[in-house]
Amino acid sequence: MSDVSINSPEFTGQGFEGEAQFGDFFALLKPRVMTLVVFTAAVGLLAAPVPVHPFVAFCAILFIAVGGGASGALNMWWDADIDAVMKRTARRPIPAGKVTGDEALAFGLTLSAFSVVFLGLASNWFAAGLLAFTIFFYVVIYTMWLKRWTPQNIVIGGAAGAFPPMIGWAVATGGISVESVLMFCLTFMWTPPHFWALALFIRKDYDHAGVPMLTVTHGRRSARNHILVYTLLLAVLAIATAFTSVGGPVYLVVALVLNALFVKGAYDIWRRDEDVSETDNFSVEKKFFKLSLLYLFAHFGAILIEAVLTRMGMGGWT
């Protein structure tokens, strides 16, 4: 790891009184990120054409959530050095001295094994294997390799956050399909504009941490161009999904409205002057970032509504 070792007193909690509390370990799980993982996985499971017993579904979503949290804990363990120098992450449990690096590592590894094994026992081993690969991809491929190596880190690494609906679908069906791949692609294409918008107004954090985000390596203008291009591609994908088996009239309305707003927001970011952005403290960029959070939840919520309507004989285009 760069800069400072996580085994130094700054990251092990040495010199701090008291033991780690439950809330400190819970914070390692990145609960806000876990919310998105749980929701998209649940939609993938419920949208699948194969019914799942409610108890099995509950257990499966629980273990997927634990696996997502384990990834977060291992991410914080590895990134403790850069977390310490970024204002946005300086209060995380390890740099704040509330949890030691060794504790976070043990916690993350234990939860990873627990989630994969019990998901396999509760549903099927294909879904469990997909969860194990997701954890590996996020921790090793993205956190340990891509994040500090390439400005395309969030593009490739975004796949890790796109797997949950595929896992949920696999719990129900035991495999993957065009529909689960579409849900994967929706999240995958959404990730770059979402994170690049954030990077526009916290660029100094990434500068200080030495993380090669696009805003650092190529500048904010390049990031603005990329946001617009990815948003246009995302809009095409999102609207086209309305005419597949997981879409329908309700989804189409949601997709048309949100993608019109999203493209408008990306265009506003693209045409922004850096001096103006600095003057108003990146108000447009922050507004786009907040909209991006609603964007994904609303699209998957619409897929869920279509699945419920289909089971009632009223969904889809039939």
TrEMBL record:
Its EC number is 2.5.1.141. It catalyses: heme b + (2E,6E)-farnesyl diphosphate + H2O = Fe(II)-heme o + diphosphate. It comes from the Bacteria. Keywords: Cell membrane, Heme biosynthesis, Membrane, Transferase, Transmembrane, Transmembrane helix. GO terms for molecular function: protoheme IX farnesyltransferase activity. Its main location: membrane. The chain crosses the membrane at residues 33-49, 55-78, 99-119, 125-146, 153-175, 181-202, 223-243, 249-267, 288-309. GO terms for cellular component: plasma membrane. It is an enzyme of class 2 (transferase). One of its GO terms (biological process) is heme O biosynthetic process. Pathway: Porphyrin-containing compound metabolism; heme O biosynthesis; heme O from protoheme: step 1/1. It is found in: Cell membrane. InterPro entries: Protohaem_IX_farnesylTrfase, UbiA_prenyltransferase, UbiA_prenylTrfase_CS, UbiA_sf. It is a multi-pass membrane protein. NCBIfam families: cyoE_ctaB, PRK04375.1-2. Belongs to the UbiA prenyltransferase family. Protoheme IX farnesyltransferase subfamily. Interacts with CtaA. Carbon 2 of the heme B porphyrin ring is defined according to the Fischer nomenclature. Converts heme B (protoheme IX) to heme O by substitution of the vinyl group on carbon 2 of heme B porphyrin ring with a hydroxyethyl farnesyl side group. This is Protoheme IX farnesyltransferase.
